[in-house]
Amino acid sequence: MSGIPDLPAWAALPVSLLLILGATIALIGALGLLRLPTFYKRIHGPAITITFGAGCILLASMLYFTATQARLVIHEVIIAVFLLMTAPVVSMLIMRAAVYRDLRARKHKAGATAGGVYTIVEEETAGSTPPGKR
């Protein structure tokens, strides 16, 4: 198997650019995971990183191995399809689980009610009157 010195110049430039772009996107996603204050804001960093950063790195890998092996290498397409199909679904399920957890725990300031889609309704106690009948 040949290495980087045997990589033609027409392939070296796109491979290096895709690797730099993918690594930069992954770094931005990691910094977003560290810097953003709430869970609901923090979930966007890794979700975008997986789809775009990993996609660039997989394209670079596919181009590199296609150029060095002198044949079309498409193993990375299977990985990319799997990531593109599962990453948004997993992010949505994690987000939905966090929303329901916060609603069940009645955390008003957690962010689950920020968009106005969900509201936290206070339960009535046995001896109290309903809000409209006082």
Automatic annotation (TrEMBL):
Q: Name one Pfam family in it.
A: PhaG_MnhG_YufB
The record's keywords, sorted A to Z, are: Membrane, Transmembrane, Transmembrane helix
Name the InterPro entries for this protein: PhaG_MnhG_YufB
Claim: Transmembrane helix is one of the keywords in the record: yes
Q: Where are the transmembrane segments?
A: 12-34, 46-65, 77-99
Origin: domain of life: Bacteria
Annotated signal peptide = none
Check the record and name the PANTHER family matching this protein: ANTIPORTER SUBUNIT MNHG2-RELATED
Name of the featured protein: Monovalent cation/H(+) antiporter subunit G
The organism encoding this protein is Massilia niabensis
What gene name does this entry carry?
A: mnhG
